[in-house]
């Protein structure tokens, strides 16, 4: 904002620009800049270009300055540290207990323990290459008869390609 000769403040930001700023900062990560421009009232055909111009500090330093200030303030709210995370889990747990949702309360307790390092999750993946003979034996174990094997292949083909079309008959004269 700047002052004119009468001492009144004049905003350099139009209502559309203000709406873009509001949408862009409040829906950050949910809406693209182009979508924010469209919702702010810019023409769909030029919204991408308008959004890029509005976010260019060389073309619109006032707008980018406001966006930067708001985003800095938002980061304090968005960032989760261990203490804030535990406080939120505790709050959710207490509300769940009041409502009799003991499964939710127990899950919160488990998550609080994980955050504090009380639980260690371990996963192990073992892979083994099969020989052709081993693979054939596994297939025979899965499909004890030729009929079972053929039904599985028909079902897969149907799922992948849909109904089989009947061949068209050509009249011979």
Q: What would your notes on this structure say?
A:
The protein is an all-alpha fold. It has three domains: 10-78, Orthogonal Bundle (Arc Repressor Mutant, subunit A); 82-115, no CATH class; 132-161. It is built from eight helices and two strands, in the order E-E-H-H-H-H-H-H-H-H. It has a two-stranded antiparallel ribbon. A hairpin with a 5-residue loop joins strand 1 and strand 2. Helix 1 crosses helix 2 (33-40), helix 1 runs parallel beside helix 4 (61-78) and helix 5 (82-98) runs antiparallel to helix 6. It starts with a strand and ends in a 12-residue tail after the last helix. The model has no long low-confidence stretch (mean pLDDT 87).
* Number of DSSP helical runs: 8
Which class of the largest domain in CATH terms? Mainly Alpha
Coarse shape: flat
Average pLDDT works out at 87
> How large is the share of residues in beta strands?
under 5%
Let me know the CATH homologous superfamily of the largest domain. Terminase, small subunit, N-terminal DNA-binding domain, HTH motif
CATH architecture of the largest domain: Orthogonal Bundle
Structural class: mainly alpha
Radius of gyration: 31 Å
Order of helices and strands: EEHHHHHHHH
Low-confidence stretches: none
Number of structural domains: 3
Describe the biggest sheet?
Answer: 2 strands, antiparallel
Question: Looking across the biggest beta sheet, what order are the strands in?
Answer: 1-2
Helix fraction? 55-70%
- What is the rounded distance between the termini? 89 Å
CATH topology annotation of the largest domain: Arc Repressor Mutant, subunit A
> Strand tally, please?
2
């Amino acid at each position: 904002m700047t002052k004119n000769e009468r001492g009144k403040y004049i905003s350099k930001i139009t209502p559309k620009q203000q709406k873009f700023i509001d949408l862009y900062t409040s829906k950050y990560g949910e809406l693209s800049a182009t979508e924010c421009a469209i919702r702010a009232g810019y023409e769909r055909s030029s919204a991408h270009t308008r959004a890029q111009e509005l976010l260019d500090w060389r073309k619109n330093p006032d707008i980018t300055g406001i966006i930067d200030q708001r985003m800095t303030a938002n980061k304090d709210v968005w960032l989760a540290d261990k203490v804030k995370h535990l406080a939120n889990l505790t709050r959710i747990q207490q509300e769940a207990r009041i409502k009799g949702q003991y499964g939710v309360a127990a899950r919160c307790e488990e998550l609080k323990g994980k955050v504090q390092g009380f639980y260690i999750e371990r996963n192990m993946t073992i892979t083994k290459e099969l020989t052709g003979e081993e693979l054939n034996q596994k297939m025979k174990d899965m499909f004890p008869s030729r009929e079972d094997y053929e039904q599985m292949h028909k079902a897969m083909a149907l799922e992948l390609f849909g109904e089989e079309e009947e061949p068209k008959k050509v009249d011979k004269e």
